[in-house]
Amino acid sequence: MDKQQLIDCHHRIKPFIHNTPVLTSRLIDTMMGCSLYFKCENFQRMGAFKMRGAANAIMQLSEAQKQNGVVTHSSGNFAQALSLAAQSLGVKAYIVMPNSSPQVKINAVKGYGGIVMECEPTLEAREQASKQIEEEKGATFIHPSNDDDVILGQGTACMELLEVYPDLDYVVTPVGGGGLVAGTALAVHYFGKSCKTIGAEPFEVDDAYRSLQSGHIETNASINTIADGLKTQLGDRNFPIIQQHVEQIIRVTEEEIVAAMRLLWERLKIVCEPSSAVAFAAVLKEKNQFTDKKIGIIISGGNVDLNHLPFNKN
After folding, report:
1. Potential cystine with 282: which of 32, 161, 250, 253 (Cβ 3.0-4.6 Å)?
2. Would you say which domain of life the source belongs to (predicted)?
3. What is the mean predicted confidence (pLDDT) over 261-267?
């Protein structure tokens, strides 16, 4: 994937996305001893960066493919993103969701026009249900993170950040399935000036950290993390990009995620979800590494259950 593909992608999806704001905080900068620039994808349509990749992936389909619709399996933000992107582009979206998904998420997908099929909460069941829809409806499967067009779309958030702040030293993103960090790394590589990409993930799901250590895609034995959007693993399309262009991955504890999320709510006055607080938690943790640097942080989303805020628990 080259520089021109990123430029073309951004131009293509502009009518269907928001160019989200970049927020700063003097208090946080003083506390950290560096300059932080928060790219707020929590203000993106449907509340997360995934709208970008979903829109681009659908727009790259042939007219015949669009006629038959798209399908994915997701219980989170990509389910909503693909549904809204498809609705905006006049395409049917079939969404396979685990029957353990919160009703609020199922309702959100339906609200965006997604046609929901529920299945058992296992990867095997999700893949089988998706394959059935592909065969019966002729729908095209779009992976939430391991897809070139999705990766390019996710990279446009960092492109917009670098357009406003071209002299950043680092850009930090959360790492789940790898689409955001891979797209960001490409944008940093092509548009940054001596800028480096850093990923952040919870210790509880540190498969990306271990994958970079071992040289092949690792899995997680457990997924016991508050950062529910980061429970997926890397894929064969994004892993090589991460290997080549991501400087390091910083791991954080559950307590560090909650503390970072609380600070963002208190000081930036924004609603962000635990997964998106992971990137800020990494910078907080390795404060000395970032002294006097300019750091972009991708706030990946703001779809949080307001009835279960982690910092309200005793």
Report:
1. 250
2. Bacteria
3. 96
